[in-house]
Every structure is written in C-alpha cells, then in structure tokens.
Amino acid sequence: GRCFYFDETTSTNAFLLGHTSELKSGDICIAEYQSAGRGRRGRKWLSPYGHHIYASMFWRLHSDISKASGLSLVVGCSIVKALSAFGVEGLGLKWPNDIYLEHKKLAGILVEIAHSSAQQTELVIGFGINMSMSAEQGGLIDQPWSDLSSLMSMPDKTELLIQLHKTLKTDLQLFEQKGLGAFLDRWNKYDLFANRDVSLIMAPNCVNGICRGIDDQGALLLETDQGIKRYLGGEISLRAA
Ligand code: ATP
Predict the structure, then answer these.
(1) Domain-wise residue ranges, the chain
(2) Ligand 1 centroid to 117 CA: how many Å?
(3) pTM of the entire structure?
(4) Which positions in this protein are listed as binding biotin (predicted)?
(5) What residue ranges of the chain have pLDDT lower than 70?
(6) 170 assigned ligand-binding residue
(7) Domain 197-240 falls in which CATH fold?
(8) What pLDDT is stored for residue 152 in this prediction?
(9) CA-closest residue to ligand 1 atom 5
C-alpha cells in the first residue's frame, strides 16, 4: 500500500477523491494540517497543527452501493478498537459515526463515495482524532470536545496511525465477508445511547423515543409509541432527550 503524506492539504478526503484512478484499497493520505477539513452535510472539521490525526483511506468494495450501508459504523467500531489497544478508556460511539471520550467528541468520521457501479463501489474513509488540543484551538468548536492528552500515557502518533490502518483494513475485509452483523457486539458495547431517551432531529422534524441499538443494515432502532421504527443515516442527528 501507499501513504501520501502532507504537511498541509485542503482535506485528506479531497486529496484521495481527486486521485481514485491510481489508488488501491488500503492506500492512505495523512496530513499535519487541513485548511478545509470537512464534516458531514457541509460542516467543518477543525484541523489545527499540533500532532492531531487527519487521515483518509481508500477502499474498493466488490459490490454495489447498497452493501455499503452501515460501513461508517464499522469504521467507528474499528477506531475504538485501535484506540482501546493503546489503553484508552471511556470511549463511546454515537450513531451513526462519532467517537466520544468521556461524553465529549474525540473523533469524527466522514465516508464519501468516489464512484459506484453494479460491480464495485469506491470509497474514501476519512477520520480526524484530537490528540492534544489547546483551549484556544478548541474554543472554535461549537460542541463539547475532548482529546487524548488527558490520558496517563499519550500514544505515539505514528504507532497509533499504523494500528488504525491495520485495524481498519482487517475490519473492512470482515465487513465484506460477514456484513455488519459481525460488529453488533462491538457496537453494543460502546453505544452511548442504548436504552436512553433520545431525540432524532431530521430538520425541521424531530422524533422522540428510546434508543434500541442498530440493525444489521446500520439503521438506528427507535422505540416509539407506534412501535419500533428504523432510521438510516444521512441527514439525521441524534441527541440525548
Ligand atoms: P454531530 O456531531 O453534531 O452529531 P455530525 O456527525 O454531522 O454532527 P461531523 O460531520 O462528524 O458532525 O463533524 C462536524 C462537527 O463536529 C462540527 O460541526 C463541530 O460541531 C464538530 N467538530 C469540528 N471539529 C472538531 C474537532 N476537531 N473535534 C471535535 N469536534 C469537532
């Protein structure tokens, strides 16, 4: 595999999306700084200098796009596994794709589709992880955030990247063979909202209910007065009620 390393780039996802014809599954792009880090729905990922992780990996699924449903949940499970291997405790997952440390946002995931046909789907899987954020840098983030610096021993960034890369590749292969079902135990172990009252915000609408985990397609299961309803990702935001 190849690694494209930048001191500075606009966004590691954008770089890989611009070079997909040359890429193989597992190729990655890493940057020290992103001038235009991206989140979902046109939102921004704050990406200052300072040993934080900004990385993207290319992946070619041997199936149409319908099989990619739930993949961003796999990426969340995978990052949690890699961080746990470094002794990080207090991690949690928020559907569909945020990673929390002690209930504050530690990392974000952005999966983008580069190309899709009946035979294959090319994906760019981006993730940002806060390593050691100053109050000044973090002051620009409009929700509670955390970083790894509060840990007893801060993981070495290169070793963490190698572990993340290895774990992601293994998990994506498992996902291709077995589907999301192989990750449900891991998801349930880290699911921050399981059995809690939540609001699903689908602007301008909002649905309340009790979170009952996910199904094998990655849909959120919500217990409402009308029974269990399922919701697939995309435009939906989850909040504690
Ligand atoms: P939400 O986290 O509100 O459910 P989302 O999943 O759509 O929304 P993402 O695309 O994962 O959001 O990330 C973008 C949001 O994350 C930003 O709008 C901001 O609130 C927050 N954010 C941006 N940069 C960082 C950062 N470095 N660390 C933690 N949170 C950040």
Answers:
(1) 3-190, 197-240
(2) 30
(3) 0.95
(4) 11-13, 34, 38-40, 105
(5) 152, 234-236
(6) no
(7) SH3 type barrels. (2.30.30)
(8) 67
(9) 40
